[in-house]
Write a structure and sequence with these properties.
The protein is mainly alpha-helical and about 180 residues long. It has one domain: Alpha-Beta Complex (putative 2-phosphosulfolactate phosphatase), CATH 3.90.1560. It is built from 9 helices and 5 strands; from the N terminus they run ααβαββαααααββα. A 3-stranded antiparallel sheet has the order 1-4-5. A hairpin with a 2-residue loop joins β4 and β5. α3 packs across α4, α4 crosses α5 and α7 crosses α8. The longest helix is centred in the middle third of the chain and has 13 residues. The N terminus is likely disordered.
Length: about 180
């Protein structure tokens, strides 16, 4: 177990805490098969990356692209290509949806309901879900704490030309 922890905490990785000290402007490529597949499948459609940390900012940014948007709770793809629905991704999608106005699809309503049911206990609920327990067992509890820092960021990663770039919105757009 110690070798596994060391391997994935040395340098930058998909572990959010490994990126806390990254310098602004650093170009970084990380392998995220499911996230990359979903992101790149959108082609020329503007693609934003949202989470609990930037839900309000992502919703505000999405509004600048038009009235019809899709919000996808990514889930996780297993090595056999099957998909596992992810509680934490449904909560994150619901958090973004909570700031969106207009008609909601049944899927959006479901994600919103998941978020609303966990809004007051985000950290506790995510620590108790399957992925949360797995991350804690592997020594990544700090990642969960960081990921659950609700609306802590105004950064909005937007996919353009095959790369994500961060966007900041005018504070009046997200207040």
């Amino acid at each position: 177990m110690a070798d596994f922890k060391r391997k994935f905490t040395d340098g930058f990785s998909l572990s959010p805490t490994s990126l806390c000290t990254i310098q602004s402007g650093t170009k970084l490529v990380l392998s995220s098969p499911n996230g990359a597949t979903l992101s790149l499948s959108t082609g020329n459609i503007p693609t934003l990356c949202g989470s609990l940390r930037n839900a309000k900012a992502v919703a505000a940014c999405a509004k600048t692209f038009g009235k019809r948007i899709s919000i996808i709770a990514a889930g996780e793809q297993w090595p056999d290509k099957s998909l596992r629905v992810s509680f934490e991704d449904a909560v994150g999608a619901g958090a973004v949806i909570s700031y969106v106005e207009g008609k909601l699809s049944p899927e959006s309503k479901a994600s919103l309901a998941v978020f609303e049911s966990s809004k007051e206990s985000l950290l506790s609920d995510i620590k108790k879900c399957s992925s949360g327990k797995e991350l804690i067992d592997r020594g990544f509890e700090k990642d969960i704490i960081l990921a659950c820092d609700f609306n802590a960021s105004e950064n909005v990663p937007v996919l353009e030309g095959g790369c994500f770039y961060k966007r900041f919105l005018d504070k009046t757009a997200i207040s």
